[in-house]
Specification:
This protein is α/β, with parallel strands linked by helices and 223 residues long. The protein has helices spanning 7-25, 44-57, 68-74, 113-126, 134-146, 167-173, 185-194, 198-205; strands at 34-38, 63-67, 81-86, 91-97, 100-101, 107-109, 208-211. The chain folds into two domains: 1-77, ATPase, nucleotide binding domain (Nucleotidyltransferase, domain 5, 2-Layer Sandwich); 78-222, 2-Layer Sandwich (Nucleotidyltransferase, domain 5). A hairpin with a 2-residue loop joins strand 4 and strand 5 (100-101). The longest helix has 19 residues, at 7-25. Belongs to the actin family.
């Protein structure tokens, strides 16, 4: 699973990033509790190591770990809803009812923004553009984030894009475009709703919350 990492490397990177954040904000870590979000299916060992990093590495007075979906829905002022979280490597549907996570109804797919970016890179290569270096991959990311959109109708180098602009977002609804057999976003959402008690489904469908970088495509909420 993608969140399983080599902790000796992960800890060093995370420590560097957070130290930079604290330094930029001119905050004294030792007097500010840390609130961290995590996937709903994080292992105990993963959570323990994360807390240890902040409590012992940064000397934070307190650490609170909370599920990303819960924080997303609380941020809207609601306590009931279906959180659709599309990150770099994982898409998750997190049903929340009256402030509690419906863990048995949670659905996830190892398909996210990274796959969309690789798909866009392939499209550009097929169009004749050379996209082979790390810098090229960064250019693809910028193109994805600034030019691509979600079509409401699913049917020093200048790069010209036509309908290719909506292909990456379309892959969320049809992963087979990338050669993947992951469930579509529509199927994932519906599967999560159906796994919830029938009396809760109407409230969940009426309160769909989007979060994660790959939900920021123009047209995505309407789709």
């Amino acid at each position: 699973m993608k969140f399983v990492v080599v902790w000796t490397i992960k800890t060093c990177i995370m420590a560097y990033v957070w130290q930079h954040v604290y330094d930029s904000l001119q905050l004294d870590v030792s007097v500010h509790p840390a609130l961290l979000t995590e996937p709903p299916n994080c292992s105990y060992k993963h959570r323990e190591k994360l807390a240890e990093t902040f409590l012992e590495g940064f000397n934070a007075p307190e650490v609170c770990l909370s599920v990303t979906g819960l924080m997303a829905i609380y941020g809207t002022g609601k306590t009931t809803g279906l959180v659709v979280d599309i990150g770099e490597g994982v898409t998750q549907c997190v049903p929340v009812f009256d402030g509690y996570l419906e863990a048995s109804s949670l659905k996830r797919s190892d398909f996210g923004g990274e796959e969309l970016q690789m798909y866009l890179q392939k499209i550009l290569c097929d169009m004749g553009y050379q996209m082979t270096t790390r810098d090229d991959y960064e250019h693809v990311r910028v193109i994805k984030e600034t030019l691509c959109f979600c079509s409401l109708d699913p049917a020093c180098t200048e790069i010209t894009l036509g309908p290719e602009r909506f292909y990456p977002a379309e892959a969320l609804f049809n992963p087979q475009l990338c050669g993947r057999d992951n469930p579509s976003l529509t199927d994932l959402v519906w599967s999560s709703v159906r796994a919830c008690p029938i009396e809760n489904r109407k409230s969940l469908v009426a309160n769909v919350i989007l979060c994660g970088g790959s939900t920021l495509f123009p047209g995505f909420p309407e789709r």
